[in-house]
Amino acid sequence: MNKSFGFGNVVSILLAATVAVVMSGCVKQKILVKVKPDGSGTILVSAVYQKNIVDMVDKQVAAQRAQFEKNGMDTSKIEDPLFNEKQFEEQAKVFGTDIEYVKAKKIKTSSGRGFIVVYRFKNIEDVKLDLNKLVSPAPKVGAQTPGDESVSFKFTKGDVAKLQVTIPKMKIPEESDTKELPASTPLSEQEKAQLAGPQGAMFGLTGNEATREEVIRKMYGDMSISIALQVEGEVVKSNATYKNPKKKGRCTLLSLDFGTILEDDKTCTIIANSKSPKVIEAIIAKENVKGIERETKSEITVEFKK
Question: Which residues of 67-202 form beta strands (DSSP E)?
Answer without folding.
Answer: 100-109, 112-121, 152-156, 161-166
